């Protein structure tokens, strides 16, 4: 961990500088996103050079469902994916654990203040699920995937967008430097330093690629696929509910 002043209230770090787990992680993640919500979209655009806009568009296209299908966007944040879903002719519904994010949302879609691991929704009630850059933030990824499978109807589709590490060694080195050194500085200048300092460390929560795909398969999406975007700095997981 880099040196510096003690983490502020929005820091996801424990007292010894480690990333938390269990209920402590849920509390820390909620607090962190509440704090960065006001400038979240702006920082995303700057630190990804607007690549995140194209990634979300590809995620929505990958659903390939009929117009008018109801899509639940989990960890919807300020509503980026909800807006893209609506533009593409879907009926979007967003859910997020962070009330701060929901308060800062810029979407006409209905929004739920809800835990993605315990959704207040009936079985098979939606045609699809999207989720952008949040897999590493859930307390239990398997429980999340099980809940996704529960609410998606048979034949429904999912599109889960997340960060990744490029397979090319040169790109991986450059990405690691940018992600580990530059992004926290950008976040610190424009938003909350401690929150964005945790971003590179949070990737450690993600399983290796084969295990991640297998987890999606095991949850009830037997045709799960993983696609790398922009040279491998992002990944898109898709699948059809059995």
What's this entry about, in short?
With 242 residues, this protein is α/β, with parallel strands linked by helices. The chain contains ten helices and seven strands.
How is the topology of this model organized?
Elements (H helix, E strand, L loop, with lengths): L21 H15 L3 H8 L3 H13 L6 E5 L5 H8 L3 E6 L2 H5 L7 E3 L12 E7 L8 H11 E12 L5 H22 L2 H5 L1 H4 L6 H12 L4 E5 L4 E7 L2
Parallel strand pairs: 1-2, 1-4, 2-3, 4-5
Antiparallel strand pairs: 5-7, 6-7
Helix pairs in contact: 3-4, 6-10
Characterization of the model:
This protein has one domain (22-164, 208-240): Rossmann fold, CATH 3.40.50. The chain is α/β, with parallel strands linked by helices. The protein starts with 21 loop residues before the first helix and ends with a strand. A seven-stranded mixed β-sheet has the order 3-2-1-4-5-7-6, sandwiched between helices. The chain has ten helices and seven strands. Helix 3 packs across helix 4 (80-87) and helix 6 (141-151) runs parallel beside helix 10. It is 43% helix and 19% strand.
């Amino acid at each position: 961990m880099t040196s510096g002043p003690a983490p502020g209230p929005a820091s996801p770090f424990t007292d010894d500088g480690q990333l938390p787990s269990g209920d402590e992680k849920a509390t820390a993640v909620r607090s962190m996103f509440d704090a960065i919500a006001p400038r979240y979209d702006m920082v995303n655009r700057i630190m990804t050079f607007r690549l995140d806009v194209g990634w979300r568009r590809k995620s929505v296209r990958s659903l390939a469902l009929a117009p008018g299908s109801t899509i639940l966007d989990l960890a919807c944040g300020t509503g980026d994916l909800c807006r893209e879903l609506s533009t593409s002719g879907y009926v979007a519904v967003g859910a997020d654990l962070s009330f701060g994010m929901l308060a800062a949302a810029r979407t006409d879609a209905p929004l739920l203040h809800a835990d993605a691991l315990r959704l207040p929704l009936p079985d098979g009630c939606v045609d699809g699920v999207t989720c952008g850059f949040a897999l590493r933030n859930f307390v239990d990824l398997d429980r999340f995937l099980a809940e996704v499978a529960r609410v998606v109807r048979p034949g429904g589709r999912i599109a889960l967008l997340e960060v990744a590490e490029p397979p090319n060694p040169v790109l991986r080195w450059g990405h690691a430097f940018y992600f580990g050194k530059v992004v926290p500085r950008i976040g610190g200048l424009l938003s909350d330093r401690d929150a964005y300092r945790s971003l590179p460390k949070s990737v450690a929560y993600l399983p290796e690629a084969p295990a991640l795909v297998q987890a999606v398969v095991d949850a009830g999406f037997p045709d799960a696929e993983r696609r790398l975007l922009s040279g491998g700095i992002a990944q898109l997981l898709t699948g059809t509910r059995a």
